[in-house]
Specification:
Aminopeptidase, binds acetyl coenzyme *A, seven-stranded mixed beta sheet, globular, alpha+beta
């Protein structure tokens, strides 16, 4: 597998990868309104890390492929560069590829990329059933990022838990 950063630059490759990612999110996050998922995934303020597997798209999987690669998961996030944090909006791995360690590797990539771009915190509104996963990835419900920095930028709603992961400049998250 490989990881690819995808931003909506209007290219065919980017659009195909974002479409594949959107389909994974819609399937794995059934409580999220489809239109909302689409809007954020294709929004130019958001970036995504797509987890790619070589091979053709399985028939009926709903996935899209670009360059002979299939999107099997990923993470869509929005960096707030001035406030030095990113919000993880959606994160999911295709059903048949879960519990193989990909979710952990994906989060390590997100952390390393965020750290290298100068961000100090990741915030997310974790679905209640994903809270144990986020805890394993170093997220905590204790929010240390000063409130004025994220107030009005993060939407907290019912059925989710706001969680934070502090990023350390000296840590190599890929090692
Ligand atoms: N409950 C408890 N433990 C979990 C869960 C869960 N729902 N999911 C994963 N874990 C554990 C695994 O058992 C594993 O534990 P271990 O390290 O002790 O073996 C660890 O978390 C990491 O497992 P991975 O194999 O790396 O994770 P995976 O590839 O399965 O991806 C993910 C985890 C992304 C949560 C996946 O299960 C998924 O797509 N779930 C459905 C979508 C979802 O809930 N996404 C998050 C919603 S919140 C948001 O998007 C902001």
């Amino acid at each position: 597998v490989s990881f690819r950063v995808v931003v909506n630059d209007g290219s065919k490759d980017a659009l195909l990868n974002l479409l594949g990612l959107k389909n994974v999110f819609i399937k794995q996050l059934p409580n999220m309104p489809r239109a909302y998922v689409s809007r954020l995934v294709f929004d130019r303020k958001h970036e995504s890390l797509a987890l790619m597997k070589p091979g053709a798209t399985p028939v009926g999987s709903g996935s899209a492929a670009a360059g002979g690669q299939t999107v099997i998961g990923g993470c869509c996030y929005r960096p707030f560069r001035e406030q030095k944090f990113a919000e993880v909006a959606f994160l999911a791995i295709s059903q048949t590829e879960q519990v193989l360690g990909y979710g952990t590797r994906l989060m390590a990539q997100v952390k390393e990329r965020a750290k290298r771009s100068g961000l100090t915190h990741l915030l997310t509104c974790a679905d209640n059933n994903a809270v144990p996963y986020f805890k394993k990835q170093g997220f905590s419900k204790k929010i240390t990022l000063p409130f004025p920095l994220w107030q009005g930028r993060i939407k907290d709603y019912e059925g989710v838990l706001l969680m934070e992961c502090k990023l350390h400049a000296q840590v190599d998250y890929l090692n």
